[in-house]
From TrEMBL, chain A:
GO terms for cellular component: membrane. This is Cell division protein FtsX. PANTHER family: CELL DIVISION PROTEIN FTSX. Pfam families: FtsX_ECD. The chain crosses the membrane at residues 20-42, 162-186, 219-240, 260-283. GO terms for biological process: cell division.
TrEMBL record, chain B:
The keyword Nucleotide-binding applies. Part of the ABC transporter FtsEX involved in cellular division. Gene3D superfamilies: P-loop containing nucleotide triphosphate hydrolases (3.40.50.300). It comes from Candidatus Woesebacteria bacterium GW2011_GWB1_40_12. This is Cell division ATP-binding protein FtsE. NCBIfam families: FtsE (TIGR02673). One of its GO terms (cellular component) is plasma membrane. It is a peripheral membrane protein. It is found in: Cell membrane. Homodimer. Forms a membrane-associated complex with FtsX. Its main location: membrane. One of its GO terms (molecular function) is ATP binding. Keywords: Amino-acid transport, ATP-binding, Cell cycle, Cell division, Cell membrane, Membrane, Nucleotide-binding, Translocase, Transport.
Amino acid sequence: MPKSWSIFMATVKKEKLLSVSNILIMTVTFVLLGLLINIVVFSQTALRYLEDQAQVTVFFKDDFGEDKITFLKGNLAKDKRVSEMVYVSKEDALRIFREINKDEPVLLESVSASILPASLEVRAGNISNLKPLAEELKLLDGVEEVRYFEDVVSRFKFWSTIVYIVGILLVLIFFVISYSVVIAALRTTINSKGVEFEIMKVVGASDDYVKSPLIHQGVFFGLFSSFIASVLMIFLGIGITLTNVFPKGLALGFLPGVFMAPWVFSIILTFILLLSGFLLGYLGSSTAIKKYLNY
Amino acid sequence: MPQIEFINVSKEYDPGKKVLDDVIFKVEPGEFMFVVGPSGAGKSTIIKLLTKEETPEGGDILFNGESIINISKESVPDLRRKIGVIFQDFRLLDSKTVFDNVAVALEVADSSLEEIRSIVPNVLNMVGLTEKMFKYPKQLSGGEKQKVAIARALAHEPDVILADEPTGMIDPDSVDDVLEVLEKINSLGTTVIMATHDQEIVNAMKKRVLRIERGQIISDKKGGKYRA
């Protein structure tokens, strides 16, 4: 073990209460950081799922026959904005209706396939194309009604963006808090060891000899705290994997179309947290040394 | 070749207020020199310039023939291991034993445990503190504390010992002990420069006396006397 590490360990042992409280504050910070990143990713994933589900449902008039609908479907298939189409015939609609209302026999008796409309579910590759598609489909002959749940998707998209922005802001704020915690912790150490550092310098200690234990202290606080937070995030990832909340996996906002297993994301998050811990510890201690040790 | 040479050295902490003004002097190897003068005359500044705690605004300072004005930051620890410093307030660590206080000087130079175990008892023996090796500073008298500081300064076998008012905080009975140790070190070939304004000590020792007032050298006499 390098000498500076043993000096640092001696400091931690000597200032147990201070070290424990610093590690606790930083752990809470990193747990919050991890949770915020998770919330941002979860909301992005939920949006992706909603976008995938978003569709325009076109209900046809009774006199608009299946052959005409098939022809229309063929024409729509050529439209590049359309990614997928599902034809729901009157019989399919009845089957779905029966499935949904299987516990209400009176209602089922009064409904037949003839009174239910045939429909076409149209999905777009890009959610922003749904609205113009819906407007165009409304104008076609034989179309009774076009349903498009624009509000739900756009509202979720709005809130998801808010979560994203607030999340990033909070993450930045927590970074600043962690940075200040490291500086405050080392300031205490530097103040309590001021005379010792002065003596060390006078008797010929190199700058590195004086600085290394402090840098190690900052890095240790950062890494240890982020490690604890990482373990908690891994458990969260395992829990999400086991409960299958996101069957397709988690979506990353900046990588469209990419889904990954929650446990894989937890491992990536672990690296992010550990790297953040290291950088915060290193930069925080370097700043504290510069500020309070006149280096 | 002189061991220490101040060539037209000027130093000011505040613009326009010179603490040292065009100071010139040389110190030969093995010399014992007093730097005397009233408080604020510039005695401590000379010591700080030699240990590179401060840098002059003008002139040059040579140590063993080489300028220390522009030496790199990395070279400063080496310089400080060649120059041992003793302070008026001892600057000992109360939480460490006498042995550990001296060992600090060797630890910072990455000396091995064997070296520390061999050197520390030797220097403590030289200053007559072998029996107090495992005592804490609070268990020592002022004179003994200063001897620990001398032992720490000696640990690197420095070429020069700089003593900044070393008798200022010790009882009169211990002053002679400390001076005796400094003389002994000097007799073994180490240069000693002692800043003081205690005329009794200076006059009793009959060494070279460099008198400084308001940042300027007033007199420089071998076997000189000093009247405050």
